[in-house]
Amino acid sequence: MSTKKPAAPKSALAGTDTLDRTNTNAKLDSLEKFRSDATEQALRTNQGVKVADNQNTLKGGARGPSLLEDFIMREKITHFDHERIPERIVHARGTGAHGYFQAYETHSVLTKAGFLQDPSQKTPVFVRFSTVQGPRGSGDTVRDVRGFAVKFFTEEGNFDLVGNNMPVFFIQDAIKFPDFVHAVKPEPHNEIPTGGSAHDTFWDFVSLVPESAHMVMWTMSDRAIPKSLRTMQGFGVHTFRMINAEGKARFVKFHWRPAAGTCSLVWDEAQKLAGKDTDFHRRDLWESIERGDYPEWELGVQIVEEENEHAFDFDLLDPTKIIPEEVVPITPLGRMVLNRNPDNFFAETEQVAFCPGHIVPGIDFSNDPLLQGRLFSYTDTQISRLGGPNFHEIPINRPVSPFHNGQRDAQHRTTIDKGRASYEPNSIDSGWPKETPPAAQNGGFETYPERIDAAKIRQRSESFADHFSQARLFFHSMSKHEQEHIIAAYSFELGKVEREFIRARQVNEILANIDLELAKRVAQNLGLPAPKAGTVEVRQTSLDHSPALSQANLLSGDIKTRKVAILAANGVDGAAIDAMKKALMAEGAHAKLLGPTSAPVTTADGKALPVDASMEGLPSVAFDAVFVPGGAASIKALSTDGVALHYLLEAYKHLKAIALHGEAKQLLDVLKLEVDAGLIVGTDATLFKAFFAAIGQHRVWDREPKAKAVPA
Ligand code: HDD
Fold first, then answer.
1. How many CA atoms lie within 13 A of 165 on its CB side?
2. Same domain, 101 and 138
């Protein structure tokens, strides 16, 4: 890409509208005037009247009836009665954070979008991560797709990249979205299950709709149970366009790649966490930002020249297909850092309103029929969710660029428009606000003039007809343990389906077309006859293996921000605790000391050590690894403590690294466990080294077959 600096923004026709480019914190400033701080302020009504008594309703006598004239009580309760707004129809459960995006260099060859021109400029962003199926209060760690929606507050207007943590989708055409969502949502008669797809209506739909096969494969993979929001990739899913100052357009697909690596929980852990810490993901995001471990992603694009639109063995407009990274590598554009938690969940995270139709000059849509429908749906949903068409005035949604037009009134209007003319053309207000012609930089938005010459028809393009080849590519690209997880997930989910004909249809008409061995294994687990062959001829893909799809290849290579539990009882070796804490800190990892109770433990040399929590208070599922320091008395106590023993067995079962220091080695016999690549014993620096190496591998996958026998 060229490193040519863009020309300084010239005043457009609407000359007073340009923004001070030195103000990189424009969004913060724009929010500031809406922020309310009650410190040292009197309690007042909404009309500004100071309140003298906030404890008692106005009554006729101390024991008498309440009086209607009590405007203070009435105002308070009326407001309370209307506190709730409709939750999002999908993606209701979410959590958000502020941050910034910064381009690595000028990307002027690719796009004229202002926020991708100047590497010294930070563009404010607000990100909302979400699950899809469950309601606002549902668990974070359920098996589901995760939403990954980013609002870039650019100086040319808001750009919303409303993606997911998976690069494909369940359906090819937006007209099927209500059907899909009705099927995946809880069953209509009893509203079960919350936050999951393991039920009849979901599997009924997807087994009847083969275009869902690829995405369902992703949701049955480890991608659907991410370890944290910080360790998820993100995808714009659809093919978009980028257009440069000369008007040259290219197709692009957006990718977010996490600096912390991409990794997941194991299924048993995810299920337990949904109960033990419903807020596991939002807590992790919140705490990381508070600690200064700012989550970071790289934004990149796969670029396809227009003349290569038809060069693939799938259609670029089909949202159930990826472009394998081995075929078109990712060009990095810049990085996003999340460094500030919201002040108020409702005002920011709940009221933020994304729309894939929010784009800026230099970016444009493709004709992906799923994207085209989305362009309508999001604004429409905000109108009922946020109470009218003025949701762009809510502080979190306001662009940092000015906005002037002839739109007026409606519910919740807060702008006080001056001037008499709310129409165009006008001569009363000297014609303002005026159009800005498109230009190389800073011009008005101009749609890419794609040529269309076609009949109006309701038809799915033939080029969208292959539904299984990329599902197969995904399955074949997985490591052995990932494939086993997929087989287990299909078996688990279909095992919850009551109607046997739905189970059989999924196995025989979907899975058998993806991979016969996969279908046979799932059939066996469900007690169904093994299919002998698929039902359709599946197209051969140009690639039979894409290493970029396997999370086994996507680790960060370090142990930064990983969390280690240190288990101790009275008599513990205090020096070992100190050494481990210091070594972890040096690697950017974190430790918490846990005792049998929340009371301090006494070290072997008589010092009282405060603990961070009891072992029951912070269970093993809250950590990446466990360290047990020596100390004869401590190990003796832990050996007969059911909570401590369960702690270790559970961490073992979840394939975590465990280091047993000094006398802690005796726990191997008590637990009937054997040393492996991640269950390490020792006393010196080699123990630490092996322990950290095991944490860096995320999980001890080789242990998995053995761990199945452990009853934790
Ligand atoms: Fe959607 C919300 C992502 C297809 C209609 N969607 C929503 C959110 C994300 C996505 C991340 C939550 C945004 C937030 O945090 O507020 N949706 C996707 C992706 C899709 C997709 C990646 C396919 C590639 N969505 C899709 C279709 C339709 C919708 C085809 C309708 C035709 N989506 C909505 C919605 C939501 C929504 C009903 C619910 C709340 C909202 O928009 O603001 O309009």
1. 31
2. yes
Question: Which amino acid, one-letter code, is at 270?
Answer: A
Do 575 and 638 lie in a common domain? yes
378 lines ligand 1 (CB under 6 A): yes
Separation of CA 350 from chain center: 15
Q: Is the pLDDT of residue 541 over 90?
A: no
User: Residues 98, 107, 164, 661: which is the catalytic one?
Assistant: 164
Residues 646 and 576 in one domain: yes
Q: Is the CB of 185 under 6 A from ligand 1?
A: no
Mutate to test the pocket of ligand 1, among 354, 366, 379, 380 (most ligand atoms within 8 A of CB): 354
- How many whole angstroms from 160 Cα to the centroid of ligand 1? 12
pLDDT score of 11 more than 50: no
Query: What does the block give as tokens for 134?
Result: 């469950």
Check residue 507 and report its DSSP letter. I
**pTM of the complete model beyond 0.90:** yes
286 and 377 in a single domain? The answer is yes
Read off the CATH number of the domain in which 669 is found: 3.40.50.880
Across the chain, mean pLDDT equals 95
Name the amino acid, one letter, at 589: A
For residues 76-96, one letter each, b for 16 or more C-beta atoms within 10 angstroms of the residue's C-beta and e for the rest, the string is beeeeeeeeeeebebbbbbbb
For 678, other C-beta atoms within 10 Å of its C-beta total: 25
Give the pLDDT confidence of 375-402 residue by residue, as tens digits: 999 999 999 999 999 999 999 999 999 9
Residue carrying structure tokens 């299919």: 531
Q: Average the pLDDT over 123-132 and give the result.
A: 98
Give the mutation target among 85, 87, 91, 169 for probing the ligand 1 site: most ligand atoms within 8 A of CB.
91
Here the CATH number for the domain that contains residue 508 is 1.20.1370.20
Condensed to tens digits (0 to 9), the pLDDT of residues 238-293 reads 999 999 999 999 999 999 999 999 999 999 999 999 999 999 999 999 999 999 99
CATH code, domain with 384: 2.40.180.10
- The H or E element spanning position 285 is helix 280-291
44-72 confidence digits (pLDDT tens):
999 999 999 999 999 999 999 999 999 99
Query: 485 is written with which tokens?
Result: 């997880």
Ligand 1 atom at shortest distance from the alpha carbon of 381: 44
- 164 tagged catalytic: yes
In the chain, the number of structural domains is 3
Q: What is the mean pLDDT of residues 506-522?
A: 98
Please give the distance, rounded to the nearest whole angstrom, from the Cα atom of residue 214 to the centre of ligand 1. 19
223 lines ligand 1 (CB under 6 A): no
Which protein residue's CA is at the shortest distance from atom 18 of ligand 1?
163
Does 278 lie in the same domain as 136?
A: yes
Q: Is 164 in the pocket of ligand 1 (CB under 6 A)?
A: yes
With a 6 A CB cut-off, is 369 part of the ligand 1 pocket? no
**Whether the CB of 147 sits within 6 Å of ligand 1:** yes
Is the preceding peptide bond at 433 cis, omega within 30 degrees of 0? yes
**Structural domain containing residue 373:** 58-393
Distance 363 CA to ligand 1 centre (A): 19
Q: Are residues 587 and 482 in the same domain?
A: no
Separation of 378 CA from ligand 1 center, angstroms?
7
* Residue 402: inside a domain: no
pLDDT, tens only, 446-494:
999 999 999 999 999 999 999 999 999 999 999 999 999 999 999 999 9
CA 82 to chain centroid: 30
For residues 528 and 668, membership in a common domain is answered with no
Distance 563 CA to ligand 1 centre (A): 33
Fill in the DSSP letter of residue 337.
E
Q: 377 C-alpha to center of ligand 1: Å?
A: 8
Q: Are residues 218 and 87 part of one domain?
A: yes
Q: For a pocket test of ligand 1, which of 170, 255, 349, 378 has the largest count of ligand atoms closer than 8 A to its C-beta?
A: 378
